[in-house]
Amino acid sequence: MRAVYIDESARGNDYYFFGALIVDDEAVLKVERGLNGVGKLLAEHVDGFRPRTEFHGSCMFQGNEEWKSVPIAWRVKASDLVAKILEQSGAEFIWRGIDLNALRRRYIDPYPPHLLTLAQILNQVDKRLSRLGDVGVVLADEHHSAATSRRKLVDFKIGSVPGYTGRVLTNLADTLYFGPSHASRLLQAADVATYFLNRQRTMTESDPRSAAAVRRIARRILNITVHRYIWAPQPTWR
């Protein structure tokens, strides 16, 4: 059985994304130990940094919250190291997004973007697990719609999402588990990967150094990405 850690990311009202990190037992240990090592490294070189500080893509890049006092060079280094750990871990990554403007143009009353993107990434994860000949259990960051998401996973396992996905999920075991990301290095790794693919795809960096860093970090994530796609439904012309 494999574990599937999922996290979400948005770009205002324009895009909504989910990323899924698929790991076996060996990859779990490599990622967890690797991120703990990065936390320890920063604590040794940055005054006041706690080894158990949460790795959160947007905070690391923008220098917010617990990363506010971390020099930019160390924030970039930490982001790069997390991506490198993932690249070398044996994990796989799936990234799905929805063009929300296209969705609104196509549907008067579309399926809620959070649940729609969740349905699409779980559909793709299920396909990947089928190819691997394995089953998986899904773990996600705590979210305000956790209860709804759990109910929907049951629906996805016994039927498709009308108009959006065309298959029943057969390789996802049990329910959808939610927990605090600050307590899970794997959820944090999924967050970092999802954030940087989002930023690389949807933002034009004004600083050449930032652009180079984002490209480098995203390239490492793409090296383990087995599927990525942004769905932009086409309008119906009358």
Topology:
Elements: E1 2-11, E2 15-23, H1 25-45, H2 57-62, H3 72-87, E3 92-99, H4 100-106, H5 113-132, E4 136-141, H6 146-158, E5 172-179, H7 185-202, H8 208-222, E6 225-231
Parallel strand pairs: 1-4, 3-6, 4-5
Antiparallel strand pairs: 1-2, 2-3
Could you say what the CATH architecture is?
2-Layer Sandwich
Q: How much helical structure, as a percent, in the residues?
A: 40-55%
Tell me the number of strands.
6
Sheet with most strands: strand arrangement: 5-4-1-2-3-6
**Helix- and strand-based class?**
alpha/beta
Folded structure, characterized:
The chain has a six-stranded mixed beta sheet with strand order 5-4-1-2-3-6, with helices on both faces. 49% of the residues lie in helices and 20% in strands. The chain contains eight helices and six strands; from the N terminus they run ββαααβααβαβααβ. The protein has helices at residues 25-45, 57-62, 72-87, 100-106, 113-132, 146-158, 185-202, 208-222, and strands at 2-11, 15-23, 92-99, 136-141, 172-179, 225-231. It is globular, with a radius of gyration of 18 Å. The mean pLDDT is 90. The longest helix has 21 residues, at 25-45. It has 238 residues and is an alpha/beta fold. It has one domain (2-231): Nucleotidyltransferase, domain 5.
How is this structure best summarized?
The chain is α/β, with parallel strands linked by helices. The chain contains eight helices and six strands, in the order ββαααβααβαβααβ. It has one domain: Nucleotidyltransferase, domain 5.
